[in-house]
Each structure stands twice: as C-alpha cells, then as structure tokens.
Amino acid sequence: MGNMNDSMREGNEERREDRDGKFSVHTLSLLSIFYIYTGIVAILIAVAPCPAYAGYLHVSDACGYENTTVTVPVELVDVDASTNCSIVGIEFELVFDEGVINLTGVHSGALTPQPGWDSPKVRSICAGGKRRHVIGVVGAASSAITNVSRGSILRLNFRVTGSPGDKTWMNISSIKLVNSSSFQYNSGTAPISPWNGTFSVCAPDTGCISGTVTYACNGSGVEGATVTLTGGGGYNKSTTTGAGGVYHFAAVPCGNHTSAYGYTVSAIKEGFLANSTSFYLASPSPATTVEPIPLWLKGDLNNDGVSRGVGDFVKMGLAWMGLIKKDFRYDLNSDGTPASIGDIFAMFTSRAT
Ligand SMILES: [Ca+2]
Ligand SMILES: [Ca+2]
Is 0.85 surpassed by the pTM of this model? Predict the structure, then answer.
C-alpha cells in the first residue's frame, strides 16, 4: 500500500507539474499576444494623424471712424474636437492695407483666457513690399479649446488712419493649429479655412452695424437669413447673413449728438418665425454690435430643434387651454392671436419644416 500510495502521489505531482507547466505556457502566450497587440495599437495611436480641426478662422468685418481705435475679434468657427485633438495653439498671418488701419495691439479672446493661455504674440515680416503680421497664441493642455460653434481667440486693436470711404481687406493665410495630443503644428495643411474680413472707414455721423442671427434651439449661427434694418428717418436696407449667421451694415445714419436715431433690425428665414430687436444709434457712434437675434423653428414650441413633435402638440394644447404662457411662437397662422383653434389646426395641416 505504501509503495502504491507513493507512486500515486508521484503521479499526481507529475500531473500537477504538467498541468501547471501547460498553464504557464498558455498564460505566457496569451500575455505576449496581448502585450504585442496593445503595443501595436499604442504605436498606431501615437503615429496616426490626429489633427486639431476647425471650420474657419474668421476675422470679423468691422468699421470705424478716422483717428479712433477699433477692436476686431478673430474667431474660431465650428471647432470639432471629437477625436480628442483639441486646440492648444493657433498661429496665422494677417495682411491689410496699412494706409487704412494700423495694428496697435493684440489681446486674448473669450476662448483663450489667461492664465491658462499665454499673452498673444505678434511679429512682422516684410516681403514683396508688404508687411505681414504673424500672430499667435498658445495655451496649456488643461485649457484646450474643445467643441465649440464659435468663439473669439484674439482681439485685434486697429488705429484707423484712412479717410472716410476707405476700405481694406483683412486677409488671413498660413494658419497653423496646435493639437493637444502631440503639441505640434498641423503646418501647411491645417484642416481649417481662412474667412477674411473687411474694414471700412466710416463717414462722420454714420454708424457701422453688425450682429448675428442664431438658431433659438442651440445658439449657432443661421446662414442665409434675410436681415432688414429700418429706422433713422427712412433708412431701409436688407442683407443676407453669411456663414456663422453674421450680417453687417455700413454707413448707417446715426442722428446727432442730442438726438439718437432709433433702429429695428428684423430677421426671417423660410420655415422660421421672424424676430427682431431694436437699438439706438447716436453720434459719434463706434461700431455697434447688435445683440444676437434668435430664430425659432415654426411649430417647435418646446425648442428642441424638431417641428411638430409630440411635445409641441402638448404645449399648443396647454397654451390653448390657458394653462401655460403663450407668445408669438404659438401664432402659427399669423392672425395675431396665439394658440387659437386656427393655430392648433395649423399644427396638423402645415407643411413640415
Ligand atoms: Ca419640438
Ligand atoms: Ca393664431
């Protein structure tokens, strides 16, 4: 029995060694494959291009009076950081007619606050008889710019040296973005387009009006909206919003020192309810930025960007019963009475927008 037990014990130990040995080999193989696989993935991630991306770098249109200083924002529009490559630096070149404006200062914008971002830097390059201004700003990874529809990265101060009626382009080129993953420039092929601005020297006693039209549901700019500016003793002009929902009126009469002119700016686009805002313009008036005008999608009473959804029908019903406040957005048949039977009927019959 003793021999038999001994031989059984030895057999068991051999089998255990075998099992342990095979288990170790399997474990090592699997671990090796895992490490090699994760190593390859890590290398691919490190090597793969991960560009910081934005739709546009935009110098706003602006205007100002002779011998005054005007601040012009430079904006990033449609920043897409969905690939985790947010923006920690921007550099670009700016050219303009120095007979019209002179660059006297560069300051941080809303997206580049200090101390997370350094003070913006500017240097000049003379080439071909023209001076190019190289302007840049860098920030810490913790202050990186992530997804945003638009926001200013810089504010440029210009001294107006031209005469009334003078105009110059403010042209952007050689845009470089620094992404947060590698802290390197996407030089040359930065996935961003320049959106140039103009600067007009205003005649005395005229105003320079600019503003934006926005979607009420998310605040982003509405392109292609018709904007009409009326007031000021008969002024009546229309324009169309560009990318980002921006509009601009130059040489707007602005009354005199004692009597300001009142203006109304209204915006409309097919499928949306018209909206407007009013302001006063007095002389001498700086470039005036009108508050954004939000447009509501027709039939989108709960403002979720979808017209005539279940929630919208519920709100129309509640407004019709007088249980919630009703306003112009509930007047879908445009008869001046919000949330009437006719408006409920319009919810069911109107063309979906
Ligand atoms: Ca809705
Ligand atoms: Ca109505």
Answer: no
